[in-house]
Specification:
By secondary structure, the chain is an alpha/beta fold. The chain has 6 helices and 5 strands, in the order αβαβαβαβαβα. A 5-stranded parallel beta sheet has the order 1-5-4-2-3.
């Protein structure tokens, strides 16, 4: 096995040092704010099993850069909106790395520091998907 020169934990710490982090108590009132887009980058299976933040937009992590870039054939118009974007994953690691990468691309965003797992555990609103037939 090759020896890594940088661990994931180190990468996340470096990302968190340079991005905006939002706490759960700060974000709860923002789910109703029309000028905020909450973006869930978890896998679709995580959303289906555990639910999601009401009103959040789902963007799979693997498509993020492509959906944000207006020059990409996969661009999603929602990312052209003049709004505040707050990204989240389950624990805040994927979203921290993602937001740092988006900043490198010139896209302004923040992330939910604790992630969805802590969000749900805190009693913040969670919407479960409709049952599948």
């Amino acid at each position: 096995m090759p020896e890594l020169t940088t661990s994931v934990a180190e990468m996340v710490a470096a990302a968190r040092a340079r991005i905006e982090e939002v706490e759960i108590d700060q974000m709860v009132p923002l789910i109703e704010d029309p000028d905020v887009v909450i973006v869930d980058i978890r896998d679709v299976r995580e959303r289906q099993k555990l639910g999601h933040i009401p009103g959040s937009f789902h963007c799979p992590r693997g498509m993020l850069e492509f959906w944000v870039d207006p020059q990409s054939p996969y661009f999603k118009e929602i990312f052209a909106a003049d709004k505040k974007f707050i990204f989240h994953c389950a624990s805040g690691w994927r979203s921290a790395l993602s937001v740092a990468l988006l900043q490198d691309m010139g896209f302004d965003a923040a992330h939910l520091r604790e992630g969805f797992s802590a969000w749900a555990k805190s009693g913040a609103p969670v919407q479960m998907p409709a049952p599948r037939d």
